[in-house]
Amino acid sequence: MLTRLHYRIHSSLERILPEKRLFLKSDSDTRFIRLRPVTQLAALAGGTLLVSWTILATSIVLMDSVAAGNTRDQTQRRQALYESRLNALSADRDRRADEAVRAQERFNLALAEVSKMQTALLATEDRRKELETGIEVLQDTLIRTIDERDEARAQTERMTLALAEQTGSARTDGSRMADAEATLEQVSSALAALARQRDAMANAVLLAKEETEEVLQQKAELQARNDLIFARLEEAVTVSMEPLDKMFRAAGLSTESLLNQVRRGYSGQGGPLSKLTVSTMGGDLTPEERRANEILNGLDRMNLYRLAATKAPFAMPVKTAFRYTSGFGGRDDPFGRGKRRHEGIDMAGASGSPIYATADGVVIQAGWASGYGRVIKIRHDFGIQTVYGHLSQIRVDKGQRVSRGDRIGDMGSTGRSTGTHLHYEVRVDGTPVNPMTFIKAAKDVF
């Protein structure tokens, strides 16, 4: 039965793939190789499988290349977007600060002008009060003089009548009457002059009041403009500061502690973070001055945030195309030694890819370390350290000060590694923390 089935199969194959002979001729004899239908079928199947595998492998390589190119383009676009957003925030902050300074200067000028007008008005009021007092004194003197004159006239009349009765003559003491009349004329002239001076001072007071009302109206308009500028500045400071504050809090860092450290580091007289206040000549602060001081303090705080952001590792150590191959925490050992704790993250990319410092700091180690291979450790402010392991090349020296974005090495596979990648760690006060906390916290800012 099996022989008959084998014969039928062989007959069917021979109709499709007839038996062939391959002759090999030499100088002495001629040989041939018989290619049976089964042999030809096996060779055809093997060739088909080889061609299919080649097509499949080529497709996979092309798909990986396209995916890597798309990831790199997206990373570059995202980085350009973050940089443009940061530049826009910085430009808007500078414009708001300039507007605040100019508004405060205009406000101080108006305040000084109002102060001058008020001083002049007070002086005018004092002069007017002095004149009124003088007029009252003169009026009292005039009344007393008139009373004395009337009394003198009455006495003169009585004396004249008495003299006429005794001597029959009506002559009087003319010198006394002349003196009294002269005194009365002088007092009347002085009173008239004082009255004219009083009227002139009253007119001056009215003019001063009108000018004061005009200045007060200008002050009110200026205050309204200042309120609008202050409102916009307060909004700009709030909008600019909230993402920075959120970034630090998301990274698990104490914002007040960070800002105090930065402030201590930039506390020199005349330094970039000198105290910003509005001069009040030692007097009490007005509401506008308190508001301006709050805005200036907000700008100062935002500047402190900006400096702190450069000193904390919120940047990416790899800017070329890469993929995350291992996260922070427990994982299976890549060399098959059970569960191990992974104190960083792994970023796999092309060999020789540039590795950058993620914050300002000082290199405390640059060399070979067991397990890490070629490794760089950088000490930053706030008790933070970053570690860059498995490098193929180190481009910095121990003790060297680096800035955020400086190239410090190249990606490699040295040490205990299964392939080209960067092992990146972040330590706070010596304790490893998840670097993705810092990377994710900076996404909405940088």
Automatic annotation (TrEMBL):
Annotated M23ase beta-sheet core domain residues: 341-435
Gene Ontology molecular function, alphabetical: metalloendopeptidase activity
Membrane spanning stretches: 41-63
Coiled coil: 121-225
Pfam families named among the record's database cross-references: DUF5930 (PF19353), Peptidase_M23 (PF01551)
Chain ranges of the DUF5930 domain: 1-323
InterPro entries given in the database record: Cell_wall_metabolism_enzyme (IPR050570), DUF5930 (IPR045974), Dup_hybrid_motif (IPR011055), M23ase_b-sheet_dom (IPR016047)
Keywords assigned: Coiled coil, Hydrolase, Membrane, Transmembrane, Transmembrane helix
The organism's place on the tree of life at top rank: Bacteria
PANTHER family hit by this protein: MUREIN HYDROLASE ACTIVATOR ENVC, PEPTIDASE-RELATED
Protein name: Murein DD-endopeptidase MepM/ murein hydrolase activator NlpD
